[in-house]
Design brief:
about 325 residues; alpha+beta; Rna Polymerase Sigma Factor, Chain: A; Nuclear Transport Factor 2, Chain: A; 12 helices; about 45% helix; globular
Length: about 325
Amino acid sequence: MAEAHRRALKLHCYRMLGSLHEAEDAVQETMLRAWRGFDDFEARASIKNWLYRIATNVALNMARRSKHGRTMPDQLGGPSTQRPQGRSDAETLWIEPYPDAELESLPDPAGGPDVRYELRESVRFAFITAIQQLPPRQRAVLLLADVLGWSAIEVAAVLDASVASVNSALQRARAKLVTLDRDVRQAPTADEHQRSLLERYVLAWESADLERFVSLLKEDAVYSMPPWREWYRGRSSIADFFRAVWPAYRGFRLVPVGANLQPAFALYSLGAERRWNAHSIQLLALDKDRIAAMTMFMQPLAPKLFTVFRLPAVLEP
């Protein structure tokens, strides 16, 4: 019975923690606690709600143990104008993308007038990034109420809190989220326009055509590359960065993947042995017929991500 809810629980824990790997650990702990405590489960609530209660509290404990939580470069300082110097920041906990393969056959939460976020909205990378800045308890309240559609009474039972305190936390979380989620409902991209845009994007990378690549960006596009702290805003800054970086590579290949229900690619670079080696995972945010944001998850984050995205470390010729 519990196994039937594993995939949905994993997504819930990912929203809470911002990490696919930590979400997997949280679900394992949830299943262990459910197994140990099943004799005390008296079916006063549904098995689903009981499991979500366990998972939420497991994730809350994990979030509280982390002093600073997970973040992204643009939350740590202003945009850069120079190439990165020194080494990447391996100490900071960075938010991770979520493979679309993990969302297959996963229905939207039970609908209702109080559900604010559909599945696509609730896995947007910008949304995941924004809610990580909420205190863990506010994060849990908002996810249970606005994503899963639970009543204040149900949320209060999960958190062993009063209904009044839940309503207060929800109000504060909603107000703060408005200021944090800067990817405010970007204009949808029609399928044929998106397909054309992504085809041109791949062509630009694989031909190292900087002018073509930059033409696909919004004027105020944002580029970040965790675990590096540096990030760049605007076509000009992004163009300067790639103009300096691309000549160091022999060539690129892009493999479509999909993450957070957004366009994503696995980037491979051509090595000295004439092999295509895993380089990074790219996640794009589109706005109409332009790219609004591009995030590249670089070394040493990339190897683990290639594994969870079920991608080879080396492409066959």
